[in-house]
Each structure stands twice: as structure tokens, then as C-alpha cells.
Design goal:
The protein is mainly α. Helix content is about 70%, strand content about 0%. The relative contact order is 0.09.
């Protein structure tokens, strides 16, 4: 074990390749999380409503009683063909199957290999950026969580507490030893991240009578603040706001996206968090130098 750890430390490319491979495998699991976690939440809500109304919980058609991230086994939604291990190799299986189910030739969404590929590439970059050590391990968890939250929010406009809250506490835990920032900055970052969007939410609601964002956005920014510290929050908010505004305008103009149709903000917060993780210090220093220039 010591020899392997030493090899990963001494041979950066080996560590990058290992993390990239693990990232591909984790990406396959993230596809399950993205698809099933919102459904699990919905089933739980229905069960709680049934308990409060003293009614028998309804069983969803097409879903067995045991439904979580592990069971039932993955299957084609069209024909029920069980997906074997060989058909579940990240990216490669999709290419070999030409994007079709082996059982019924139904089309398989290209998003599955996309999530796997993005997870693998980001994981490899984390390994190259941080090198072998605790920072890389933490950054991998941070990246994977943000990736899952991004696609869940795109699909459902939900940011599950099952991901955001553990992410917040894990950030504080890692920063006990100053992995990404000092503990004081992490605690203030968590508080400031939550209160910043909470304040915007209430100001917007008092001014318009509408809810401009969800509580999940508050928790996500709090988690990012817990990981990166309060000094990174202005950069994260600025980047996410700029990207969100540009994408929103493009959707309205080019895709005829109605102005009253809500656009999830979580993916842009996640993107801002990733940029701050990788290049936050560099961007902040460049900005300060620009301000100081005559």
C-alpha cells in the first residue's frame, strides 16, 4: 500500500490516469443519482402526505416497492432489458452499442456518456491541478457533488438536501486542517453564502410578490462558501450571475424560452464554484492588480 501511495505521489501522470478512470466510473453512478434521487424524494413526499391524511400510500406504476440508488438493477425503460456489466462500461459501451438498447434498439440519451466523460475529465484535471493528497480527494468529492446537482437542477429545478447539506458539513470538516481555506473563513463563508441569496430572495419577493429562487440555492452557495471561504463568494456570485444572464437571454431570444418560465440557478452557482476552486486565486489577484494599475 505504501509503495502504491509513493508511486502515485512520485508519478503525477499515474495519479491523473487513476483519478480520470475513477471519475468515469463515478460518472456512471452519478447518472443513477441524477435519475433516481428526485424520484426517491417524490416517493417519500407522497408517503408522508399519505401518513398525514391517514390514507394508504399509492404505489407508483412501473416502480417496485424497493427503489433506491442500488435497487432495482438498471434496465431499459422501453423493453425492461437488464443492463449487464459489459453494457455499463462508461462511454465505451455507449459507443459500441451505437447509442441504442441491446434489447430493443431504442435510442439511449447521449447525456449518459456526457456525464461520464465530464466526470472523468474533471477528475483527471483535479488530480493534475492539486496533485496527490487530501486536497485532491476533497476536490474530487466537491466536483462530483456539483456535477450531480447541476443535472438534477436542470431536470427538476431541485437541489436536494441529501447532497447540499452533507457537502456543506464536509467542507467545514476538511477545512479544520485548512485544506482549502482556514476554518474561520469557511464558517463565515457558509453563513455569508446562505444569507447573501436569502436576502436577495426576500428583497425580490417583497418587491414583486414572486419567488426568484429556491432555498436549495441558498444551501448550495453556503456549501461553496464552506469549501472555499468567504473571500471567494463575490467571484462565485459574479461568475454565476453573468453566465446565468447570458444563457437566459439566449434561451429567450433563440429558443423562444418564455420569460415567465423559471431558469434553474443551481447549475450556474456550481459552475462558478468550480471556476473558483480551480482558478479563484488567480482571477482574484488579476482583478486586484487591474484595480491597482494607474
Amino acid at each position: 500500500m505504501t509503495t502504491l501511495a509513493q508511486a502515485l505521489h512520485d508519478i503525477p501522470l499515474l495519479f491523473v490516469a487513476l483519478c480520470g478512470t475513477i471519475g468515469l466510473l463515478v460518472g456512471s453512478f452519478l447518472n443513477v443519482v441524477i435519475h433516481r434521487l428526485p424520484k426517491m424524494m417524490e416517493r417519500e413526499w407522497r408517503s408522508q402526505c399519505a401518513e398525514l391524511s391517514d390514507a394508504a400510500p399509492e404505489r407508483e406504476i412501473g416502480h417496485p416497492s424497493a427503489y433506491n440508488l442500488m435497487v432495482p438493477a438498471s434496465a431499459c425503460p422501453h423493453c425492461g432489458h437488464k443492463i449487464s456489466a459489459l453494457e455499463n462500461i462508461p462511454v465505451i459501451s455507449y459507443l459500441l452499442l451505437r447509442g441504442k438498447c441491446r434489447g430493443c434498439s431504442a435510442h439511449i440519451s447521449a447525456r449518459y456518456p456526457l456525464v461520464e466523460a465530464v466526470s472523468g475529465l474533471l477528475s483527471a484535471y483535479v488530480a493534475w491541478r492539486f496533485g496527490y493528497g487530501m486536497a485532491a480527494c476533497g476536490a474530487l468529492l466537491f466536483v462530483w457533488a456539483l456535477l450531480a446537482l447541476t443535472f438534477i437542477d436542470f431536470d427538476t429545478q431541485l437541489l436536494p438536501d441529501d447532497i447540499t447539506l452533507p457537502l456543506l458539513w464536509l467542507g467545514l470538516l476538511l477545512n479544520l486542517s485548512g485544506t482549502f481555506t482556514d476554518l474561520g473563513s469557511a464558517v463565515i463563508g457558509a453563513i455569508a453564502g446562505y444569507l447573501a441569496l436569502w436576502s436577495v430572495y426576500w428583497l425580490f419577493k417583497l418587491a414583486t410578490g414572486k419567488e426568484g429562487m429556491g432555498f436549495g440555492d441558498f444551501k448550495l452557495l453556503a456549501a461553496i462558501g464552506a469549501w472555499l471561504g468567504w473571500k471567494m463568494l463575490p467571484l462565485v456570485i459574479m461568475l454565476s450571475s453573468i453566465v446565468g444572464a447570458v444563457v437566459g437571454i439566449v434561451l429567450i431570444v433563440a429558443a423562444r424560452h418564455g420569460r415567465n418560465v423559471p431558469i434553474p440557478f443551481g447549475p450556474y452557482l456550481a459552475g462558478g464554484g468550480l471556476i473558483a476552486l480551480f482558478w479563484g486565486q488567480t482571477l482574484t489577484q488579476a482583478y486586484l492588480q487591474m484595480l491597482a494599475a494607474p
